[in-house]
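This section describes the prediction task in plain terms. A model, or a person checking by hand, is given the sequence of a single protein chain and must write out its three-dimensional structure as a string of tokens. No templates, partner chains or ligands are provided. The sample shown here is typical of the held-out split.
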Amino acid sequence: MGGARLRRELAIAAVALALVAALPLSGDAYVLRLGTTVLLYAVLAMSWNFIGGMTGYPSFASAAFFGLGAYAGAVAQSSGMPMALAWAFAGLVAAAFAALLGVALLRLRGHYFAIASLVVAEVLREIANSATDLTGGGMGLNLPVMSALSIQAQAVLFFYAMLAVAALNFGAMLATAHSRLGFGLRCIQQNESAADMIGVNTTLYKTVAFTLSAVFVGGAGAIYASWVNYIEPPDVFDVLFSVKAIVMVLLGGAGSLFGPLIGATVFLGLEELVWRNLLQIHTGILGLLIVLLVLFLPRGLLSLARRHRSAAA
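The expected answer:
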């Protein structure tokens, strides 16, 4: 049963990957931009799913990891490191930071953990604002421009770079879901005290989940910095990165494999629809739509498919 399910999930993922990978063939710059954005959103959602969806810890640290990755990659590139290596370096920096932070932060639970994780991004933002020699402070930081490539070629490059991170993120999520780690995380989500009693090393498992929630976001942050060529603290440490990650997972289905991907796609669609047609009040309308969806679909959009299968049976 488990093997058949894994094969089915791999087949669905392969088809989805092939369809997304073909987007640059359209030659449409707008489609390519949307594709890159939805992949970025998918990375944010899938990464949060490790700590929030699977483990049940309400983390608001996504913005911290994203901003840290953006600055780590930008500073590394400005120091002469090749772009691809700078992206990988940024992911490792974010992972190391999360592992160290998690040892202390994950001793907290519930709203205490949520508030503490929210503060991390603000602290890093202030550090980035103060470290003028390294980060440019409030003036921001310009990244090296790839003059050898055309604008279209650069857009395609960043699209496939973000696709690679999203694919690796999904692979890690799939491996976790079908491993001892995934079982341990689900035990922690159900009852952490009971998980301790049956021999689950909850501190280790939570720290691994927290690290996984950071490494891909850090890499995506570095790619984003290269994509836009300029970053500043309020942009990359924006708390909306944390909020969007949570909302996207809730929309699709927390703890599920494909829920974050569905949530990211639907969220971007709503965002674009509202932005285009209701520019003046887009934030309020988008917030209302999200609240309604979350209230009436507490288990995400995937719950509709499950209800349909149950009714058919």
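For orientation: The mean pLDDT is 90.
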